[in-house]
Amino acid sequence: MSTDEKTTPETTAPQAATSQATAPRPPARGHWTAMERLEELGLIKEEVRKGPDPLATERQHAKGKLTARERIDLLLDEGTFNEVEPLRRHRATGFGLEDKRPYTDGVITGWGTVHGRTVFLYAHDFRIFGGALGEAHAAKIHKIMDMALAAGAPLVSLNDGAGARIQEGVSALAGYGGIFLRNTKASGVIPQISVMLGPCAGGAAYSPALTDFVFMVRGISQMFITGPDVVRSVTGEEITQNGLGGADVHASASGVAHFAYDDVRACMEDVRHLLSLLPANNRDLPPAGPTTDPADRLTDRLLELVPDDPQRVYDIRTVIEELVDDGDYFEVHPAWATNIVCALSRMGGEVVGIVANQPISSAGVLDINASEKAARFVQFCDAFNIPLVTLVDVPGFLPGVDQEHNGIIRRGAKLLYAYCNATVPRISLVLRKAYGGAYIVMDSRSIGTDLALAWPSNEIAVMGAEGAANVIFRREINAADDPEAVRQQKIKEYQVELMHPYYAAERGLVDDVIDPRQTRRIIIRSLAMLRHKHADLPSRKHGNPPQ
User: Fold this and answer.
1) Is 90 helix (H, G, I), strand (E, B) or coil?
2) Do 451 and 504 fall into the same domain?
3) Where are the beta strands (DSSP E) in 205-284?
């Protein structure tokens, strides 16, 4: 069945194929022995494990989807899953619900380990009521979220649900409210990861949006507030479910999804990898990892990778590969706002967050999407004690009517606010150009970076020499017999006076101008020095960041 088709009747609550264990009748003598009770428990647990009738599992597989338990097996270390409330059943009546009371109520909750570290999870079981959320279903999710927060361990949701269970009315809606409340309370306290493995429509989509990272799988994952039918009836637009809210749409256009994959197994492997880079909670440091990459390794290739000419482009990801341990990094939002790169990696075995302008995409300018992408990443790293390394090569903010009318001022201020508010170790490095307000925003010394470094090729200025000369010497150029000759002369004059690589260092705005070949060694040593940094923010309930 195409994933663009509407949900079939088999996935709606009244008609969903479900089953429940039938307890054995009491023996004639009127009581049970311990072994008989154990046998009964075994039958019920086996029924829970199998789920509804085999046809429901076949239908799930026919759509290219795994069952909830198969997904859990992919996520967790083998044999470590501990289920919570497997025997929970709803108590709702009406619309035939009293005759359909399957165990689990369509959601599997519990905990296990990923790379030996505790992780809590819940997984919708689409085979039962289409994964729709009812009162008991929601109560199970609330409980496991509370347990994750109390234990100080990450929470992963495996989402595959048809929304609120309509037959339970407002009770189902209130269940979503409880999830949203807990998502918000857990924000910045424990890592929260949403893995979209089926439909997620209406208000249900707000829970993933409140979490730290959203993973989607092409062909089976969709997220939208109003579906294609509503869009068609209101606007007349014809669009499929994937065209409206599929994985690629949210990974590249809306920015709702951080990652998109072709298959579930690759997706789960990256969820596991991401968890290996994150602390369990905001009181822990990120887990260190072994590396054979020498901390004092020279980075000679950087002299070739970054052109001296500021007008020539290059891929900043090659620079990141040269700097980090073994060239390995995990890029966040790789398909959205590609003019800035955000990535998690390790340097000297310690986890770092990297923010870098990307010259091969729109010359690396900052715009609305890039500012929001980087701001959220900076906030996440700060919340979970991940040091920040910022690689700067930025010509400024993107000019244009659309940018101004759509709020580049307040959107750009989000990145400024995030850096200014961050208390983790922060190191910035200017590779080439750093012009105007974008230089300030990219974690400059003036907004609190701990160490501001620059290469000898740096150009830190209010604007490029050509633009500056046109503004400062406009009258002189226009009045000259040979305006172009005078303009070129003034450009060189501005470059010599204000754009030489040591101008900022002479004024204490850059701590040091370094040899590019020493970059990895210097950053790792600097991060080691800053590891126990302590910074206090003013006493306040919370700030009021720009929206």
Assistant:
1) coil
2) yes
3) 213-217, 222-224, 259-261
Say yes or no: 265 and 336 in one domain.
no
The three-state (H, E, C) secondary structure of 405-446, written as one string = HCCHHHHHHHHHHHHHHCCCCEEEEEEEEEEHHHHHHCCCHH
**Residue 448 token pair:** 């609190």
322 plus 209 within the same structural domain: no
Asked whether the predicted pLDDT for residue 8 surpasses 60, the reply is: no
Rounded Cα distance between 441 and 395, Å, is 12
CA angle 445, 293, 331 (to 5 degrees): 60
Same domain for 359 and 267 = no
139: Cβ contacts below 8 Å, ≥ 6 apart: 88, 175
* Residue 477 phi, psi (nearest 5): -65, -45
Nearest alpha-carbon partner for 121 in 81, 77, 175, 66:
81
Burial label for 226, CB within 10 Å (0-12, 13-18, 19+), is: middle
Contacts of 82 (CB under 8 A, 6+ apart): 110, 111, 112
pLDDT in tens, 143-192: 999 999 999 999 999 999 877 777 777 877 888 899 999 999 999 999 99
Nearest residue to 186 (alpha-carbon basis) of 221, 153, 141, 224: 153
Number of domains in the chain: 2
Asked whether the beta carbons of 264 and 68 are under 8 A apart, the reply is no
d(CA 319, CA 513): 18
CB contact set of 40 (below 8 Å; sequence gap of 6+): 23, 24, 32
- pLDDT at 465 (0 to 100): 67
Token pair in block for residue 226: 């109003």
| Same-domain check for residues 509 and 383 | yes
Tokens of 465: 């020499």
Convert 387-399 to b/e letters by CB count within 10 Å (16 or more is b). bbbbbbbbbbbbe
Pair (258, 200) in one structural domain = yes
Tokens linked to 42: 């075994």
510 in Cβ contact with 453 (< 8 Å): yes
- Give the integer Cα–Cα distance in Å for 432 and 307: 9
SS3 171: helix
* Catalytic (active-site) positions: 202-203, 437-438
372 with 418, same domain: the answer is yes
Q: Kindly report the three-state secondary structure assignment for every residue of 353-394.
A: EEEEECCCCHHHCECHHHHHHHHHHHHHHHHCCCCEEEEEEE
Q: Please give the residue range of the domain that contains residue 171.
A: 51-275
| Strand extents, DSSP E, 174-237 | 192-196, 199-201, 213-217, 222-224
What is the C-alpha to C-alpha distance for residues 503 and 437, in angstroms, rounded to an integer? 17
342 within domain boundaries: yes
pTM beyond 0.85, yes or no: yes
